[in-house]
Amino acid sequence: MFKSQKFFRFQKKSARVIKIMKKDYKAYLGGSVIMLILISAIFAPLIAPADPYKTNVTKRLEGPSLQNLLGTDSLGRDILSRLIYAARPAVLVSFGGIIISVIIGIILGLLAAYVGGILESIILFIFDVIRAFPPIILILVLLSIIGPSLLSVIVILGVTIMPRYGRVVRAETLSEKEEDFVEAARSLGADNSRIIFKHILPNIFASVLVLSGMDMASMIMWEAGLSFLGLGLQPPLSSWGVMLQESYQYIQTAPLMILWPALAIMLTMLGFSTFAESLRVALNPKLNQEV
């Protein structure tokens, strides 16, 4: 009975969120961009018109044409194909980094708020140590020690932004664990794990979801910036940051070469940001008149 009631409440809340987002153009705009990026990343070998790594120096720095819709780069590679393949590391870094941040942040935040005591002090100290360093300095130092690679970028970015998730979860949990329904569950004999995962976590996950959506855009920017500096993906692998790095020296002779990856980064960040904003409004009844 209780499970059916919880499912009904979840279904009702989901229907309300979807109804609100259907009326928001930001949801359509952001969702369309996100779907385009995901499709490009998943089906890149089927969508790309040419081999992104095949060079042809006789066609280097050519402008858009029927054979190469966005032109070619300094090695004669098809720019459109490289843009499509570059969606893969962008998706991997954004989703991978967010997943690491969310999982670690939720675990530490819940432990800090629910257990308290010396464990809370230790966890908060870890958060403070990570946040004490400017993100760019911390990321650059760790990457210079570990070495540039896709996996190292994902892990380091995930750990760097993890404290914000931990603090959000801790604050939400401190508020939720004093609610009447938690006290009722405890009086009925529910153990701590059941209270945390069945009663507290579902009520705080909306905040984590909105925050993660907004951080997706930052992750893509970080991946492109680190690759541009030579600390992310390495050539000849295709990345929007690598494409910016390779085209920077040709900005005077072939300006379109740097324009395409810059547009890809901008539109992807805009898509994630607008969709996250729409989701934030839909999940917060105070920002909407509809119930």
TrEMBL record:
Tell me the domain of life: Bacteria
Look up and give the membrane topology term.
Answer: Multi-pass membrane protein
Question: InterPro entries, per this entry?
Answer: BP-dependent_transpt_permease, MetI-like, MetI-like_sf, OppC_N
Q: Where in the cell is it found?
A: Cell membrane
The record's listing under PROSITE patterns reads: ABC_TM1
User: Which residue spans traverse the membrane?
Assistant: 27-48, 83-104, 111-130, 136-161, 204-233, 253-276
The family database entries (Gene3D superfamilies) matched by this protein are listed as: MetI-like
Q: Which UniProt keywords apply?
A: Cell membrane, Membrane, Transmembrane, Transmembrane helix, Transport
* A GO CC term attached to the entry: plasma membrane
Q: Which GO BP terms apply?
A: transmembrane transport
Start and end residues of each ABC transmembrane type-1 domain:
87-276
Family indicated by similarity: Belongs to the binding-protein-dependent transport system permease family.
Entry protein name = Peptide/nickel transport system permease protein
Which species is this record about? Halanaerobium congolense
